[in-house]
Design a protein that fits this description.
Largest interface: B-C, 34 and 32 residues
Order of helices and strands of chain A: HHHHHHHHHH
Structural class of chain A: mainly alpha
Number of strands of chain A: 0
Mean pLDDT of chain A: 84
Radius of gyration of chain A: 17 Å
Low-confidence stretches of chain A: 1-11, 212-216
Strand content of chain A: under 5%
Number of domains of chain A: 1
Oligomer: homotrimer
Number of helices of chain A: 10
Helix content of chain A: over 70%
Chain lengths: 216, 216, 216
């Protein structure tokens, strides 16, 4: 399976996909580094959290798929992108106030991208659609979860309104688009849009999933 | 090794083993979901913790054995069982009070089952008995450990009296039964019984392992 | 890749490397067990933390390299060494006060050893130098990070002055020594010395990396 995955990947690294992937890596790394600096960590801590946030989800997906070493360690572009993002975060942290809404929007874009890319990689490797959806969600939320565990927080996926749910929605949309016979590009676009829009509406409307009686 | 593992597995999926495995998955998922709801998490958080608690131990074992993708992602029955358990937990949480002793008993049964199944899978793959015992313990306690880390608790295996110790005992009994030439079914039954009984006696008698001077 | 890694390893297990590896395992396991006992955990908890601290970094490296099962589960010597260290920690905890400087020195030696061994293993497997450096750092700091996550602490690598930085320095020195054509033994010695000396100077001089404005 590893070999077939590799050969299919080798056939498909369009410039658009690569740019999108590196864009998601940059945004997530920036967020991770800013979280570290907000938590009074030093430069190295910021780099570690940048790496973990940006690359963690994809690494867990690749480990579970048996695609080893993971993409993040095969190509120097991924760690280098995370490194640059951490340096940028460190540079601007004292001087620039980043509007929260900008960060939330970029994060929703990164989430949509990673969730769709993860689901697609799993489907291409011949995994069951249900497993592919799970791997897509893990790709989208895995990095942020590692970041929260490192900061000794309960992970955002367990707390934040409609975050992992949006990743799940995007992954499911991708599976349905495939079943309907849509082209890979159209399916991926629709799925990423579905995830992004659901996440932004949830932020805007303060949507929440039902909780237990004790919580309400 | 992966291939030999697969072929041996393919030869051995008796209905009893499968039912027992899914039973353990259901119980652990139920516990994970109830822990999430007790921690005021929403429906999605309950699902995430149900999956992590029920499938985490087996996933770590399969990753360490190089059996990838892990069983939990190969067959849709495992995630589906965890999903149903989370839905059940969500449905009954407001209406039914589950007696703690029932939960503890079910949990001990799940622990015994997972510890023995994990040890057996490792032995069948030709791993060293000591490594197989470690993998059995990881299978039994891994999911609950991930759940506790997510909830930012010190894992129960580090705190609770004779929990991982019971898994260790069951795994060691299995190795000895194999050495004595007992049949696989008899060895697994004796080992699971050993783990279950030790755990229940420890709960009943409030047994504790010796701690440091400061703790006593 | 797994096969080539194995065969190269099979050709290189010099007694010195093995002794150094087991020495690092012993020191890290001792530290893990002492941390557990300091946190009022019982004997089994001490063993779990000893294993996780001593073997965690190498296990994560081997998983990411696809070298499965990881070394720690292939040879019984690694878990056995960790087990003995945990028993020693448990035995001396009540009677002997270990000077902090001795522990810090031993820990710096273990860090240097693991960082260099991890980088070398990755380079030998043909990984990119940047990835090899990352894997070396992960090998050095991974176990301690798991220990801290289990104890619900923010990991030391995110807090402690020039700890992971020292591992990074050693790994980079090794890559440069290789590029300069130095022998494997000389390169490893220089790299380990670089890591160890940087770490000890940082402890001695209370060096800190620059943090965010809020932290300073």
């Amino acid at each position: 399976m590893t070999i077939s995955t590799q050969s299919r990947r080798a056939a498909r690294p369009s410039t658009l996909v690569l740019l999108a992937d590196l864009g998601g890596t940059f945004v997530f790394a920036l967020e991770g580094a800013l979280a570290a600096l907000g938590g009074h960590l030093d430069l190295f801590g910021a780099m570690v959290l940048a790496f973990a946030t940006a690359l963690g989800g994809g690494v867990i997906r690749d480990v579970l798929m048996g695609f080893l070493p993971p993409s993040a360690l095969r190509a120097w572009t991924y760690p280098a992108t995370a490194f640059v993002a951490a340096a940028v975060a460190f540079g601007i942290d004292r001087h620039v106030h980043i509007p929260p809404l900008l960060l939330i929007t970029l994060d929703a874009a990164g989430l949509a991208l990673f969730a769709v890319a993860g689901t697609e990689k799993a489907l291409n490797a011949g995994l069951h659609p249900l497993s592919s959806v799970l791997l897509g969600v893990i790709t989208g939320v895995g990095g942020g979860t590692i970041r929260d565990v490192f900061l000794a927080h309960v992970p955002a996926i367990l707390r934040v309104d409609v975050y992992a749910t949006a990743a799940l929605f995007g992954a499911v949309v991708l599976v349905f688009c495939r079943r309907l016979g849509l082209s890979a590009a159209l399916g991926a676009t629709l799925a990423a849009a579905a995830c992004f829009v659901l996440r932004m509406i949830a932020v805007w409307q303060h949507w929440q999933l039902p909780g237990s009686l004790a919580a309400s």
